[in-house]
Amino acid sequence: MKKALVIYSPSAGKIKSGQTARIVRKKMESLGYRADWFVLDDGFEGMIRDYDFSKIKTVVAMGGDGTVKVAGRIILQNDLKIPLGIIPSGSANVIAQELKLPFKITEAIKLLARPEKFALLDAGIINNKHYFFVGFSLGHVSEVVAKTAVGLKKKLGFLGYFLSLISSKTRLKTFKF
């Protein structure tokens, strides 16, 4: 069996209680993976700091773009030369959309067994601290994304961000030059 590290966000948009995790665990086992699971919560950073990465063959991010960002950071900070699997289950899944990954969870997992389908993904780093993939943003839009309620994202997905944007109290001024 190949060993995998799964970074799992139970608060990601499409994840329903533990049901999704059970499906992923079972499907990964059928593909020959034995996985160590880390929940992306307040204790994550302390737990992952002491983890032994020596036998890991892949890191899998199960969640949204934030989960992918954390999983990518773990690979980069630990200088791992292994693939990052993405199981898109967040609200927007911009990275998965850009990579044209399947959004059906069982189909996304199947890609772990198909290295010929692996794609290269560029990463950016700012001040040796902040990692990003696909895009980087600052300002009002970033603030809206960060402040959008988890419940709104779970219920409405990407539309939750839009509603949060139009209902925000901040008004943008335009300037002509």
How does this model look, in words?
The protein is α/β, with parallel strands linked by helices. Helix content is 38%, strand content 20%. Strands 2-1-3-4 form a 4-stranded parallel sheet, sandwiched between helices. A two-stranded antiparallel sheet has the order 5-6. The chain is globular. The mean pLDDT is 81.
Principal-axes shape call = globular
Q: What percent strand?
A: 15-25%
Mean pLDDT: 81
Write down how many β-strands occur, each being a DSSP E stretch of 2 or more residues.
6
Gap from first CA to last CA: 62 Å
Spatial strand sequence of the major β-sheet: 2-1-3-4
Q: Over all CA atoms, what is the radius of gyration?
A: 17 Å
Uncertain parts: none
Count of helical regions? 8
Major sheet attributes: 4 strands, parallel
- The H/E string reads EHEHEHEHHEEHHH
